[in-house]
Amino acid sequence: MFNAVVINKDDQGYRAALSQVDESQLPEGDVLVKVEYSTLNYKDGLAITGKGPVVRKFPLVPGIDLAGTVLESDSERFAPGDKVVLNGWGVGEAHWGGLAEKARLKSEWLIPLPEGLSAREVMTAGTAGYTAMLCVMALEKNGVKPDSGDVLVTGANGGVGSFAVKLLSRLGYRVVASTGRPEESVYLTELGASEIIPRSDLSEPGKALQKERWAAVVDSAGSHTLANACAQTRYGGVVAACGLAQGMDFPSSVAPFILRGVTLAGIDSVMRPLDDRIEAWSRLAKLLEPADFDAIGQEIGLDQVIETANALMDGQVRGRVLVKVAS
Q1: What is the layout of strands, in order, in the sheet containing 151-153?
Q2: What SS3 string covers the chain?
Q3: Is pLDDT above 90 for 156?
Q4: Which of 187, 219, 242, 253 is the most buried if burial means most Cβ atoms within 10 Å?
């Protein structure tokens, strides 16, 4: 038996609870992992609170990220004792995830623990840091350079936003951070933001074309925020869209794309090819320092996950939430 956060939906309603689970209940997979750390992402918050249709089957253990040690393996890629990392692949949605002391997974979903990073550091970054790096890579591949101009990061207090601000500033970009929590300005400045603007500047309906401001954008909000960010992006600029914190809609027009040549790059982290994952984690290992993880992350135990998920969905959590799973 081991501890796990389990989500159920039945005649008693939708609920999440810390429970004791028998190993025989784990789903199919060719690798059994002892989970050391997991994370609490926005998607996990949606799943645990039931505020979004994330969970596809019940019962389910949430947690789209995990890092740990292989206990058993029927795969040629991994052997007992190997340190591994998982991000995405529908884990925590349709397959039992990382908010448990053990996880049985498919070996093709796993990568070795990145060289130069500990399991704790990898999970402090988690899908949020990995997604932020994918966004930065998309800007670079589309020709955005530090001397191109200001880069806007929306949802800057969140996990993706926090790591995007840190990564871009370390690479020499001038970062403008958008936030709905002005009291966190010191935090964002310490991460490397050169300027901070209120979320309300972008979150209301706006014109299809507006004054050109941004050489590039990393957006985790969607909806009107993404539409306004595109409308304000300079000629030939790039917008990396990776989230839907404000909404899944996109109330815009083709004007920024056909009149200013703006590129809208969609960033998917869930089904990303193996080579992209390894490149992103390698870049993170080179760019981030130990103090960066401490500045952005906060650690909780498995028994604090449900209450923290509710705080996350209420906008009361800054940066990243690291979950220490191993007792």
Answers
A1: 195-198, 175-179, 151-153, 214-219, 233-241, 263-266
A2: CEEEEEEEEECCEEEEEEEEECHHHCCCCCEEEEEEEEECCHHHHHHHHCCCCCCCCCCECCCCEEEEEEEEECCCCCCCCCEEEEECCCECCCECCCCECEEEECHHHEEECCCCCCHHHHHHHHHHHHHHHHHHHHHHHCCCCHHHCCEEECCCCCHHHHHHHHHHHHCCCCEEEEECCHHHHHHHHHHCCCEEEEHHHCCCCCCCCCCCCEEEEEECCEHHHHHHHHHCEEEEEEEEECCCCCECCCCCCCHHHHHCCCEEEECCCCCCCHHHHHHHHHHHHHHCCHHHHHHHEEEEEHHHHHHHHHHHHCCCCCCEEEEECCC
A3: yes
A4: 219
- C-alpha distance from residue 291 to each of 191, 248, 294 (Å): 11, 34, 5
pLDDT at 177 over 80: yes
pTM of the predicted structure, to 2 decimals: 0.93
CA distance 218 to 241: 6
For 2-113+292-324, give the CATH class: alpha beta
The answer to whether the beta carbons of residues 83 and 73 sit under 8 Å apart is no
CATH number of 127-266: 3.40.50.720
The residue extents of the domains of the chain are 2-113+292-324, 127-266
Which own/partner contact pairs does 177-180 have at CB distance under 8 Å and 24+ positions apart? Answer: 177/153, 178/152, 178/153, 178/154, 178/202, 178/225, 179/155, 180/315
Over residues 150-178, mean pLDDT: 97
The CA distance from 43 to 62, in Å, is: 9
Cβ atoms of 316 and 91 closer than 8 Å = no
- Cα distance between residue 163 and residue 199, in whole Å: 18
315 pLDDT tier (thresholds 50, 70, 90): confident
Contact 190, 295 (CB under 8 A): yes
